[in-house]
Design a protein that fits this description.
Structural class: alpha+beta
Number of strands: 8
Helix content: 10-25%
Largest sheet: 8 strands, antiparallel, barrel
CATH topology: Lipocalin
CATH architecture: Beta Barrel
Oligomer: single chain
Number of helices: 1
Shape: elongated
Order of helices and strands: HEEEEEEEE
Number of domains: 1
CATH class: Mainly Beta
Radius of gyration: 20 Å
Distance between the termini: 62 Å
């Protein structure tokens, strides 16, 4: 009995990997939840609202506002003209990590 096996061509394999990567990136983008993310070490809360608008409560003087945008597994925060951007890594759909390693957890 002869058994014929087929191996996927390189182009099919490349296409499958590309589609899987695209689906993964889409899934990451859809899992971000707006709301208040709190850093318990410093008592700072980042409130991510609709339309890419947010504000910081506690830990700093006043209530600074910011804009944000999602980029794959990161959230890029802009504090305004001539201010450096901050990049938060999304660890899962309820936890963000700042560049200094501090984790912010979604308050539900």
């Amino acid at each position: 009995m002869n058994v014929i096996t087929r191996t996927p061509s390189k182009s099919r394999l490349s296409l499958a990997i590309s589609l899987l990567l695209a689906l993964t990136l889409i899934a990451c983008g859809s899992s971000f939840k707006e709301g208040a993310y709190m850093d318990s070490r410093f008592g700072t809360t980042y409130e991510f609202g609709p339309n890419g608008q947010g504000q910081i409560v506690g830990g700093v003087s006043g209530t600074p506002t910011f804009t944000y945008k999602l980029e794959s597994d990161q959230i890029v925060i802009s504090y305004g003209k001539d201010q450096p951007e901050a990049v938060f890594k999304r660890l899962n759909n309820k936890t963000l990590e700042r560049h200094d390693g501090a984790q912010l957890v979604l308050q539900e």
